[in-house]
């Protein structure tokens, strides 16, 4: 991982850039991340807050006190709802970027996972599951 990360939301209202190396890339299995992503877990890319710049658009924020006692602010696109950034009051110099919002998500190398005791079984995909390289079968048939 090096150089510049770029990304944005689904509707492209929000675009951002980030210079420099991520500090970590963390899978989080906590229930709050499950709800906010609508998926099994979040992959948060920790970057220096000063390195991240929103180059177009504006985000909305929602703040909740987590089980850890930390106030966690999650920022998202107000138009399409894509979750983008997470900020933790205890760590003011860091922003976590949602890895799925990156233009080149393959650049990210996950470093660890947290809250695994809360992980759902379907967070881990069974290799034997029927798989389709592109769209799957019609669920209405
Ligand atoms: Zn959007
Ligand atoms: Zn979490």
Q: Could you describe the 3D structure shown?
A:
It is a single chain. The chain is mostly beta strands and 141 residues long. It has a single domain (4-119), classed as Metal Binding Protein, Guanine Nucleotide Exchange Factor, Chain A (Beta Complex), CATH 2.170.150.70. 5% of the residues lie in helices and 38% in strands. It contains one helix and ten strands, in the order βββαβββββββ. It has one helix spanning 31-37; strands at 4-8, 15-19, 24-28, 42-48, 52-56, 60-65, 71-76, 83-88, 94-98, 112-114. The strands form two sheets. A seven-stranded mixed β-sheet has the order 6-7-8-9-4-3-10. A hairpin with a 6-residue loop joins strand 7 and strand 8 (83-88). The longest helix is centred in the first third of the chain and has 7 residues, at 31-37. The model has no long low-confidence stretch (mean pLDDT 95). The structure holds zinc ion (2 copies).
- Could you give a short account of the major beta sheet? 7 strands, mixed
**How many discrete structural domains?**
1
Kindly report how far apart the N and C termini lie.
44 Å
| Number of helices, where a helix is a run of at least 4 consecutive DSSP H or I residues | 1
The run of helices and strands is: EEEHEEEEEEE
Share in helix: under 10%
User: How would you describe the shape?
Assistant: globular
Q: CATH topology, which one?
A: Metal Binding Protein, Guanine Nucleotide Exchange Factor, Chain A
Bound molecules: zinc ion
**Structural class based on helices, strands and sheet pairing:** mainly beta
Main-sheet strand order equals 6-7-8-9-4-3-10
